[in-house]
Amino acid sequence: NTMVGNKKSTLTKLVDYYNIRIMPHGGPVLYPIILVTLGWIAAIAHDGCDFARVTGPAAELLTGSPAVPYVDCGMAAYRVPGFYPAANSWRVAYSEECLSYAYIEVLADRPWVSAEWLNFLSIIVGGGTTMFLWSATCLTLRPNSWRAAGVGLMLSWICQVCSLVWFYTDLCSTSSRNIQEFAVSRQNSNNSENSETSSCYLYFGSKCVITSSCLWFLASIYMLFGKYPMPVPKLVAQDDTETVATPPPGRIIAPGGYQPIPGGKGGIGARPSRNLASSERSSVDGGSLRNLQSSKNIQQERASFISKLSHPEDG
Questions:
Q1: Computed over its alpha carbons, how large is the radius of gyration of the chain?
Q2: Predicted structure pTM score
Q3: N or C: which end of the chain has fewer CB within 10 A?
């Protein structure tokens, strides 16, 4: 029981030290938390091979077939559609696995690599800021920490928006239909003006990037330029029906039980077991005095009655 009590007291001290409680900032803190969480979910919702839809010669470059009208491309893999004769259309089977790029070292130019790193940084910083903000549901954040989280969200928003630089990659403007021509055209840095060029369009992954960017931007504006949510005062329950244990006259309450007061007489020096207010302590001491006086009066009356019985002639 002693060990359990010590553990509880230690836990209570930690809770009081860090001021751990439910919603210390109140309900307004949930507004940026919900926005940031939805933005982070949108940032990781795509599967990595549906960032953009590529049409034109680039589709033939990736598949090797001029019949394929488009290809869904990501930053690390792509997905090829299949032809369904019953519907007479090309469709993508999203249950199939993505295909890795065979010549990624040739395809990945400077905008491609920059977009990969920017998207990675936005997910890491945005996810870390999201986890930090969720701690505000049980911990008290200082104004500096609140503003720092807003700066982190603004940085995540900038990185996420800049990751759309992927659409400036050479794959989205090439007229080459095989990897050899593509490598030569990159070295020469020119495409034939009369030939057909490829095009890249927003698809599920890039639309998720735009969605998360908007949510993170709104949350960062709310935290940087909005009012800081002041912590709600902590309410402490007070029990007004506490009972006071009064020891016997001439004794005090000690860990080993009731012990005599050194040099004390009667019950005047007896102290209550709890820290009471001055008015309550005086009432307790006054009651002890009245009890002592009444017992002395009873003893005096008893002694006089016995003396009368012993000397009836005096009566």
A1: 41
A2: 0.66
A3: N
